[in-house]
Amino acid sequence: MRVSKAKKRTRSVVVNLRMKEEQRLLIDRAAEVTGKNRSEFLMDAATKTAQDALLDQTLFTATPEQWKAFVDALDAPPKVIPSLKKLLSSKSPWDQ
Fold first, then answer.
1. Where are the alpha helices (DSSP H) in the chain?
2. pLDDT for the residue 56
3. Cα–Cα distance between 11 and 38 in angstroms, integer?
């Protein structure tokens, strides 16, 4: 079976990190308990942190009318939902 040129060009990029021995041991332990190797664990953690950082910087724009509707909704008194009120006023199973 012939492999396409696109698949042949797929390579991993090497990233070298310097860290304290304690950090590496901690990361290795965490990777082991999650069933990953160190590289997979670091990649997952770094990717999640990068996504969170970018999502925190998301800018939402609104017209003056949309902004007023948004602020009005925030300022309005909360809507009473009887089933939610009942749930929140009942005792927790561990308190019974």
1. 5-8, 21-33, 38-56, 64-75, 82-89
2. 85
3. 18
| Structural domains of the chain, count | 1
Summarised one tens digit per residue, pLDDT across range 43-60 is 999 999 999 999 988 888
Q: For residues 62, 66, 68 and 72, what is the CA-based torsion angle, rounded to 10 degrees?
A: -120
Expressed as residue numbers, the domain containing 37 is 18-90
Is residue 10 one of the residues assigned to a domain?
no
Structural domain contains residue 11: no
Q: Which of 34, 20, 52 is nearest to 42 (CA)?
A: 34
Q: What is the pTM of this model?
A: 0.53
